[in-house]
Amino acid sequence: IKPGEVFTYAGYEWIKLEDGLAITKDTVTESEFDSDCNNSYTTSKVKCYLTDAFTDSLREDGADISSFDFFPLDLTADDGTKEYAPYKVMIGLLTADLYRKNRCWLEPINDSWWLATPKSYNHKNDDIAMYVDADGVLNDEFAWSRDHGVRPVCKLAEETPVDVPDEKPIE
């Protein structure tokens, strides 16, 4: 599968990105980033959803969790500040930098969706996270003020069987 191609795994359509990553073709739920006014992905409500409820949903739809490889999220803030070291995840969100790198494969989806990137770690902006607007433009929002879509990103092991349109189904 080449970057930009769509495949199905565990009941969801995914888009292959660069570096072996894949993102759901559409949002899977709407959620605030964090109800406690915190823009840190590592403690956010959206991260808890991805590691608990979404992972359970994948298992229920036949995903083998051992098929997911850990990958690092660079949590550098949009203003360039680096309060946190890279954070390893099996399922997470794109960062603003990963979005920019893979923008050519990601058409706007008529829905806004969260990124793992905080606007800043400065105390004046420590409650603001970045998101992608419905037209594909990066923007920022208070972490607690509004629901945006959630588009999980993962890195599947190379040997993971997936369904690709126009190919024979997996047996």
Let me know the largest β-sheet: 5 strands, antiparallel
Overall form = globular
Strand content: 25-35%
Mean pLDDT across every amino acid position: 93
Major beta sheet, strand line-up: 1-2-3-12-7
SS class: alpha+beta
Low-confidence region ranges = none
Individual helix count: 2
| Helix percentage | 10-25%
| Strand segment count | 12
Q: From N to C, what is the helix and strand string?
A: EEEEHEEEHEEEEE
Nearest-angstrom radius of gyration? 16 Å
Report the span from N to C terminus: 18 Å
Descriptive overview:
By secondary structure, this protein is of the alpha+beta class. Helices cover 13% and strands 27% of the residues. It has helices at 45-60, 96-102, and strands spanning 6-9, 12-16, 21-24, 29-31, 71-73, 87-89, 91-92, 113-118, 128-132, 138-142, 148-150, 153-155. It is globular. The model has no long low-confidence stretch (mean pLDDT 93).
Q: How is this fold's topology laid out?
A:
Layout: E1 6-9, E2 12-16, E3 21-24, E4 29-31, H1 45-60, E5 71-73, E6 87-89, E7 91-92, H2 96-102, E8 113-118, E9 128-132, E10 138-142, E11 148-150, E12 153-155
Antiparallel strand pairs: 1-2, 2-3, 3-12, 4-11, 5-6, 7-12, 8-9, 9-10
Core attributes:
171 residues, 5-stranded antiparallel beta sheet, globular, 3-stranded antiparallel beta sheet, alpha+beta, single chain
Provide a brief overview of the structure.
The protein is an alpha+beta fold and 171 residues long. It has 2 helices and 12 strands.
